[in-house]
Design a protein that fits this description.
The chain has 2 helices and no strands. The protein is mainly α.
C-alpha cells in the first residue's frame, strides 16, 4: 500500500476501513508479518482520519 493511498479526505468510511482491518487480522491468523504490520499501520491512520471526518461532519 503506497502513501498516496492515504490522500487527505479519505472517501472510505471508518466502517469500511475497520472491515479491512478486521479482514487483515483474520487472514494473518492473529500474527502480522512485517508487510502486514505496515499495511495495518496505514489502515489505522486512515481509520482515525475517517473517524475524525465523521465526527466533524456530525457536529
Amino acid at each position: 500500500m503506497s502513501p498516496d493511498f492515504l490522500a487527505p479526505g479519505s472517501v472510505r468510511s471508518a466502517a469500511e476501513v475497520n472491515e479491512q482491518i478486521r479482514a487483515l487480522w483474520l487472514r494473518a491468523g492473529g500474527s502480522l508479518s512485517t508487510q502486514e504490520r505496515e499495511e495495518y499501520e496505514l489502515l489505522v491512520v486512515e481509520w482515525a482520519a475517517a473517524i475524525r471526518d465523521e465526527v466533524i461532519a456530525a457536529a
